[in-house]
Amino acid sequence: MTLIFDPNTYRHLLAEVVPLPIETEEEYERILKLVEKLTFQKNRTNEEQILHKLLVVLIEAYEIENYPMEQSTPHEILKHIMEASGTLQTDLVGIIGSSSVVSEIINGKRSISKEQAKALGEYFKVSPSLFI
Asked: What is the per-residue pLDDT for 71?
C-alpha cells in the first residue's frame, strides 16, 4: 500500500536527515538514533513513516555488511523490542493473550501465531513478519 504524502514536507525531513548509504560507525549510530525515535513516536505522519522505512533499509544494508549474525527467534525479537520501548509483560496482556500466554511466548515456550504477530506489529508499529 502506497502512502499519500506531501512532497514538500518529505523534502524538509530529507534535508534534516540527509539519508545516504551508511559508511561509518558514527553515521550508523546517528541513523540508529533517528530510527529509534521514529519507531516509538506515536502518530507518525505519512512522511515520517516513509522516511522511517528508508532509514531502516540503510541500517539493514550496513548491518548485513558489517555485523553478520544468525537470525534471531521471534521471541528474542519481541524481548528486545519490549526492552527498548520499556514495555512490560503486563502491557501485552489482552493484546496477544492472557498473562500465562504472554509469559510462554516471551520465554520461547509458545510460538507466536499470525494473529498475535499482527497485533504485536500494530502495537509496536513494526512489521508483523518480525514475530513469525
From this structure: 79
CATH 1.10.260.40 at 74-131, yes or no: yes
Domains of the chain, by residue range, sit at 7-66, 74-131
Nearest by Cα to 19 from 3, 5, 35, 43: 35
Over residues 70-88, the mean pLDDT reads: 90
pLDDT of residue 90: 94
Q: What is the pLDDT of residues 26-48, one digit of tens each?
A: 999 999 999 999 998 989 999 99
* CA 81/CA 130 separation, integer angstroms: 10
